[in-house]
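Tutorial handout. Part one gives the primary structure; part two gives the three-dimensional structure as tokens.
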Amino acid sequence: FIRFDKKKSDEVKRSQSDKFASISAVWDKFVRNSQSCYKL
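Part two.
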């Protein structure tokens, strides 16, 4: 699922348990860019 909160403590916890945490920053930027380009 996609997370929309930006709490630092959650990021630290996620990086310890999520093997995809290293690409989550890139994914978040992609999602924000897509949302800004394709608003209804």
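Part three, for discussion. The chain has a mean pLDDT of 74. Helices lie at 8-17, 21-37.
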